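Blackboard transcription, Thursday session:
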Amino acid sequence: NEWVDRLAPKAAAVVAVGTCATYGGIPAMKNNPTGAMGLPDYLGWDWKSAAGLPVVCIPGCPAQPDNMTETLLYLVLHLAGLAPAPELDEALRPKWLFERTVHEGCNRAAYYEHGDFDREYGGHKCLVKLGCEGPVVKCNVPIRGWVNGLGGCPNVGGICMACTMPGFPDKYMPFMGEDWKSNASTIPARFLYGPVIKYLRNWEIRHSGDREPAWRRPGAQLRTGYRPHWR
Ligand code: SF4
Ligand code: SF4
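(Written on the board underneath:)
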């Protein structure tokens, strides 16, 4: 922290990268033997740089690389007078990167809606029964992927452990175990609307979407499907 004490007062912008630097992360979990904490805790959540910017947080364990470069480039453009100050959320994360939940970007979300859940790893359905915290975690990794757009924890079969959140890890322990809130949130999907929605959608697919329109048939008469609206 001597380096932070010396550099922060002179910095135009201070960027905390990774969950340890932003909010303390695993080194600052309960029983925190070293007194670890993130930069906003150390400098102050209202702290401002020489250029009037608060600490900018890019959390993640690890932080998503494109989130880092995009934020750094944005700050350079701002400091050059070519862009407004970055809009940050209440946890000092760039708002445009962290406003959606993991669940909102997950390619398994339709299974959650249908009440279809995997009970063991290796399947392709929703992982909430295996401990996925995606519905209550802000992170764009399922949309952005990890490398060249590939990956994104639940998209490729791993539960979301909430590594971008200020409450990580303590508020999401134990990992890899279903918690009662997640379990309660699945009850309506499993027993009320989920099976009904799934049945109606499958019916729609079988009886409409999977069938071609009637005029696409060989025959003596040309049938186009056109209906003059004046008749
Ligand atoms: S795997 Fe997780 S993020 Fe994806 S739909 Fe299920 S609960 Fe939501
Ligand atoms: S999806 Fe969850 S575990 Fe994966 S990087 Fe985002 S917050 Fe972390």
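Lecturer's comment: Residues 102-191 form a domain with the Cytochrome-c3 Hydrogenase; Chain A, domain 2 fold (CATH 4.10.480.10).
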